[in-house]
Amino acid sequence: MKPKRRIRESQFQDDRYYLTVDIDERGEYGATLYDYNDKQVWDCDTETVYELIEDGYLKYKPDQDLDRLTKYLSSNGTIPKGSTIDDEKEDEDMEENRRMRENKKSKRRVMLENRLRQVIRPIVRSILKESISPQETDFLESLKKNKGVLELANHYEVDPDVIIKQLRVRLSVKRDITGNVKKVSIDFTDTNSGIKVKDSVSF
């Protein structure tokens, strides 16, 4: 059964709406959706809500299920796709506070992503890399005296061991048909500093 809807015509001037609960007591429920020009866009009563829940459009009352209500009203053309329904009308101060919170979240997300790329990802890749051969271990040990490694350690103000740990995943290993290591090399340029680490050892 298709839910009964009472839709009011509205000229959508933005994609934000707010829902007000008109009644919610003794088994009776009623709510109205307005745009931010305070023009009524949609409303529902107890029967409409029961039908929406029965047909699977909602799981709870509209004010407790705004995400599904938004999806439902977008799908039937009552509001444009990408719209947002607030549980109350926000004034200018509330809107500014909301934008500030979103900006802070966005900045934290960017910082986290940068941290992931610069630190966490190389460490995870090192952990997940299969056990290295004794030849690779010896080669990494020899890199402690490599000019490029020392320059990187000085540039980032860290111990050379930290740089070598990150360079582990950059090694190139050549093996013979029996799997024995014949050559270990590295040719890496740090994009931030322009410092280059290049070396190779044959076995």
Task: Give a verbal description of the structure.
The chain has 203 residues and is α+β, with helices and mostly antiparallel strands. Helix content is 41%, strand content 24%. It has six helices and eight strands; from the N terminus they run E-E-E-E-H-H-E-H-H-H-H-E-E-E. The strands form two sheets. It has a five-stranded mixed sheet with strand order 1-4-3-2-5. It has a three-stranded antiparallel sheet with strand order 6-7-8. Helix 5 packs across helix 6 (160-167). The chain is elongated.
The span between the termini is 77 Å
- Helix-residue proportion: 40-55%
Mean pLDDT: 81
Q: What characterizes the major β-sheet? A: 5 strands, mixed
Radius of gyration: 31 Å
Task: Report the structural category.
Answer: alpha+beta
Q: What's the overall geometry? A: elongated
Low-confidence stretches: 1-13
Number of domains: 3
Number of helices: 6
Strands of the largest sheet, in order across it?
1-4-3-2-5
Q: Could you give the count of β-strands?
A: 8
Strand content: 15-25%
Order of helices and strands: EEEEHHEHHHHEEE
Brief digest:
The chain is of the alpha+beta class and 203 residues long. It is built from six helices and eight strands.
Please write out the topology:
Layout: E1 6-7, E2 16-25, E3 28-35, E4 40-45, H1 46-54, H2 66-75, E5 84-86, H3 92-128, H4 134-142, H5 147-156, H6 160-167, E6 172-175, E7 181-189, E8 196-202
Parallel strand pairs: 2-5
Antiparallel strand pairs: 1-4, 2-3, 3-4, 6-7, 7-8
Helix pairs in contact: 5-6
